[in-house]
């Protein structure tokens, strides 16, 4: 199932840009929950898994696969960083900024995640190559 999520992010279908952004946000959140066990506690990881199942416009199989990823369960066909690498590759800077803003709003609106909002913002800035591009733009302007 993760392979099909990967393909849907790579090649957007008829559902449109909002559905693609939701899918990417759910995938990035799930991946972050899995990779950042030192930064996110168990309650936060479970909250992310629950949000992936309920707050995004995802099919039940896609939501289930991403929730399993967030919960640190064994997941077939997963490679570390596959979703963040893909989003950094195929999304425009503007879309990556929208993605980061979507995740930030989600973290700020959930009491169980508010404590880690700044940590997640910093993580996303790095993995989505937003921080690097910002520094490059400032260097060219100066």
Architecture overview:
With 142 residues, this protein is mainly alpha-helical. The protein contains eight helices and no strands. The chain has helices at 2-10, 17-35, 42-54, 60-70, 82-90, 93-109, 117-127, 130-141. Helix 2 runs antiparallel to helix 3, helix 2 runs antiparallel to helix 5 and helix 3 (42-54) packs antiparallel against helix 4. The longest helix has 19 residues, at 17-35. 35% of the residues are buried.
Q: Could you give a short description of this structure?
A:
Helix content is 71%, strand content 0%. By secondary structure, the chain is mainly alpha-helical. The chain has one domain (2-141).
């Amino acid at each position: 199932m993760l392979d099909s999520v990967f393909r849907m992010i790579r090649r957007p279908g008829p559902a449109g840009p909002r559905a693609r952004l939701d899918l990417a946000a759910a995938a990035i959140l799930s991946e972050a929950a899995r990779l950042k066990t030192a930064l996110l506690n168990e309650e936060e990881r479970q909250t992310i898994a629950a949000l992936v199942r309920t707050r995004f416009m995802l099919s039940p199989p896609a939501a289930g696969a991403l929730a399993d990823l967030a919960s640190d369960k064994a997941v077939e066909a997963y490679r570390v960083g596959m979703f963040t690498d893909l989003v950094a590759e195929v999304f425009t800077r503007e879309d990556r900024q929208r993605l980061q803003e979507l995740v930030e709003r989600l973290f700020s609106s959930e009491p169980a995640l508010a404590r880690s909002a700044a940590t997640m913002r910093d993580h996303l800035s790095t993995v989505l190559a937003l921080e690097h591009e910002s520094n490059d733009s400032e260097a060219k302007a100066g």
